[in-house]
Amino acid sequence: MIEVTPGIYRMPLPLPVPNLSHINTYLVKGDRGCLLIDTGWNTAEAFASLKKQLAELGIKGKEISRIVVTHAHPDHYGLAGKLKALFNATLYFHHLEKDFIETRYVHMDELLQEMGQWLNQNGVPPERLPELQQASLPMLKFVAPAMPDTTLYGGEVITCGDFSFNVLPTPGHAPGHICLYEPDRKLLFSGDHILPTITPHVGLHPQSGSNPLGDYLDSLNRLEQMEVNLVLPGHEQPFTEFKERIEGITLHHRLRNAEILAALNSEAKTAFELTTSITWLHDVNGVGWYKLGNWDKRMAILETLAHLEAMRAKGEMEKFNRDDIRYYRSPQKSREK
Ligand SMILES: [Zn+2]
Ligand SMILES: [Zn+2]
To answer: What is the reported pTM?
Structure first.
């Protein structure tokens, strides 16, 4: 537990995944109850760690009267249902995330079916389909779902003690992702929208909207106009180089587009073919995808798709169907035909 500014504490909670060691939850002290930003996974270890850090601060669970979740991914939202019930707290999150709770965490059959079809149409070979289609199922046990008591739309101001937090919709990593901005101290709680060294995952899938990477880059552009002294991210360490980081992430996406275009090599390819021929995790041999776990393999395909559709929205890519499989090609190629 670390005091990031008087009255605001970062409480890292452990995550049971290899390449991400912890999620940051933040506690804001108020005179009439405290505010918790993000919750961690629903594991005994995360819950014990939260209890321990609260005890070190001299805070009783029941003093947490409000919980704000930046987006409904298991690492940020997993403990929400349990904490809400235990502390009798009011839960806040964005209406677009609320729409997914039922299909993702309660009745998943339809979404599983859709995901299978989605992967199939984007070129995943039948023998790989089951493992990729079901890759998210192990995550379910880490989520105790709950609906928000207060649904956010963006533009709200949530006050706690001396602090007031503006709710900023920042779609892209998740359609209903929000950041919280504290204008007096110029603090930005960035969730997974901006992380100091990791480039946040942005994927195209049945619940992502039609151009999530376009949404993501637009959200980044809007944020870049703001004055931010300290970014408090959902993972890794708080940092001050706000604009430089935005520029770094934007450049990363430009380079990825260029890499995909080069892999396309003026042919028509599926998202799966492209995904398996570009680099992942700094693997220079271009076979990195095959070394990933199923969850990461699937995220990689969805990321490639997000790039393809973002380029398509700008007229830099074309898509066509052949035997119900989607192929991408550069517009240049179709003009030559
Ligand atoms: Zn996330
Ligand atoms: Zn996260």
So the answer is: 0.95
pLDDT (tens digit per residue) in 287-302: 688 888 899 999 999 9
- Residue 255 CA from chain centroid, whole number: 21
Residue 190 CA, ligand 2 centroid: distance in Å: 10
Q: Tell me, what DSSP letter sits at residue 173?
A: S
Length of the chain: 337
Ligand nearest to the CA of residue 174, numbered in listed order: 1
The C-alpha torsion from 73 through 76 and 82 to 88, rounded to 10°, is -120
CA angle 239, 91, 191 (to 5 degrees): 20
Model pLDDT for residues 119-151, shown as the tens digit of each residue: 999 999 999 999 999 998 888 889 999 999 999
Distance 135 CA to ligand 1 centre (A): 16
Question: How many angstroms is it from 325 CA to the middle of ligand 2?
Answer: 32
Buried-exposed string 138-170: b where 16+ CB fall within 10 A, e elsewhere: ebeebbbbbebeebbeeeeebebeebebbbbbb
